[in-house]
Protein: CubicO group peptidase (Beta-lactamase class C family)
Organism: Streptosporangium sandarakinum
Amino acid sequence: MAPVLEGTARALLRRIAQEQAGSRLPSLAAVVVRDGRPVWFGSRGRVDGAAPTEATQYRIGSITKSMVAVVVMRLRDEGRIALLDPIGKHVPGTSVGEVSIAQLLSHTAGLTAEPPGQWWERTPGMPVEELLALLGPETARHRPGRLFHYSNLGFALLGEMVARHRGTDWARAVRDEVLEPLGMRDTTPRPRAPHATGYAVHPWADVLLPEPEHDAGALAPAGQMWSTPADLARWAAFLAGDTGDVLSADTLAEMREPATVDDGEAWTSGFGLGLQLARVGGRRLAGHGGSMPGFLASVWADPGDATGVLFLTNATSGASRALTTDLLAILDEHEPRLPAEWEPAAVDPALLELTGPWYWGPAAYALRLLGGRDLSLSPIGGTGRASRFTARADGTWIGLDGYYTGETLRLVRRADGSVSHLDLNTFVFTRTPYDPAAEVPGGVDEGGWRA
């Protein structure tokens, strides 16, 4: 993938320069990714007297959670766990053992946001046995499944579950199963040189205060990792769909499905399974933010056009939440994607007779033949339920999206072999509106259509 054009690069650099100066950030690094490759890197400020490079480490905080979530999903795909399992089945002996793994991944388990004890992000961590012993009735703040309530504690439990199943610590499992296969060898649980020092910036003066850094112990799965712009660019490509052998495309897509969304007129943010979700400027983004004392980070990916963006900075607060989406908007303005060239597709010619208009009662739908034997069914004008279907070996189709996700579409033929109708989970689609020759549930009035 070629780098962005000079004018695009200048506009992207200007945006991060505005951010670094206006938000008073000691240093700032950012990357834009397209089609699995970084196409732009920029940095401002200084780390040990020099501009940050693509190899400079920053702490990424809660982006760690998404990496732990990938290992959890691998355990699910291996059949070792089920997402509906209560966490107590795998980490017994806690007072919150009834909450499900899926609820922990999506922050809908109702657990307290922070663990008992001191402010965990600024103090040395406790062993997991000590943490589990401290959990009591007050750990549950809401009914499981009732609402979204972000919980660092929940990911401590998930990290311990990973450790018990893998027979090693959570960080080694993440390294062996996620980071190494993706080539992210500069993502580590503790810093390595060269790395940025975390600072707090005085609110009323241009001076810095170094922030503490430590091993978070049992809470480490919630925010321990350090990474580089280059490694996090690979992570953005992963989230956009370049999964390598780490996860199947279907499992990653499942992680990106909204499990909970903000309560508004139209959802703009939400949470999947270990991934934050957002809808901005026509894009559907998946990723995560990170915040630890002295550091802020954010990474987002749009699988719709294989685009990603990220930033890393060594300040406790101040960076704009709009920085990443502003960078995407600049890319769209200066170098909008060209539509993919249309070209003919190889299809099953025996299915061509099925294409064209079908009717659910009086409502008109168009059936299109996609590549191979796959189909799409969508309303012709007006509103209705649209879905794509993939062919199965038994001659039926299974819904991939929309209302009919997971539902079966069958082709029903008459005794002479001619097509009678489509049966979509009991809904009958006929070639003419309420075709009296088809098996329309409830029958068709003998008098037919009338004025």
